[in-house]
Amino acid sequence: DDSFNDLYSKLQHTALTCIFRRGDNTMWFGAWDKFLYAYEQITGTEKTFKPTTAEPAIPTDETVSFTEDKRKSIWMACQNTGVAVYDRGAHKFTSYQHDGKDGSLIDNHVNAVYTVRSGIVWIGTDNGLSIHDPLYSPFQQYFLPKEQDGKDITIFDFYRDEQYNLWMATS
Q: Do β-strands 36-40 and 27-31 pair in parallel, antiparallel, or remain unpaired?
């Protein structure tokens, strides 16, 4: 596909941390500069989201993974600040973080996000698994057993095979 031939030369950054293609073929990029980039292939335009602590809360951290839920919102795993969700229709970011209470994320160091066919979002962290079922908000927390040396098991990534089994890459 020739539309990708000169894509990277148009972008302002040099070190990408993750790439995601939405259902509408918009490409999303996380980068070391902590900016988010969305490239709309149809129009050939790029939208840049600069990190800020102002509302709406654009993540101020590296994005390391993306997924899209059934409502077409983009979920972003942020390296040290939890999860950010972009509602494209409302043009609004929402941030979710660990606050020590039941129903929050299990940990703020998020390595991967993944949406299964049912619409449930799986969130892999350095301290276990958080699951978000849109019918039963907030998050469910699942602590994994510790390694023999007492360290927490880290979830690095998710993969769905052809039989729809969901695999987790762990430490």
A: antiparallel
- Spatial strand order of the sheet with 36-40 comes to 16-21, 27-31, 36-40, 45-49
Residue 45: half-sphere exposure toward Cβ, Cα within 13 Å: 3
Distance in angstroms (rounded) separating the CA atoms of residues 80 and 88: 23
Q: 49: which 2 tokens?
A: 């989201």
pLDDT in tens, 123-162: 999 999 999 998 887 899 998 888 788 888 899 999 999 9
**Contact call for residues 153 and 170 (beta carbons, < 8 A):** yes
**Phi and psi angles of residue 135, each rounded to the nearest 5 degrees, phi first:** -80, -25
Could you tell me which residues come within 8 angstroms of residue 4 by beta carbon, excluding any fewer than 6 positions away?
Answer: none
User: Tell me, what's the pLDDT at 11?
Assistant: 55
pTM: 0.85
> Which tops the pLDDT comparison, 90 or 114?
114
Q: Read out DSSP for 70-86?
A: TT-PEEEEETTTEEEEE
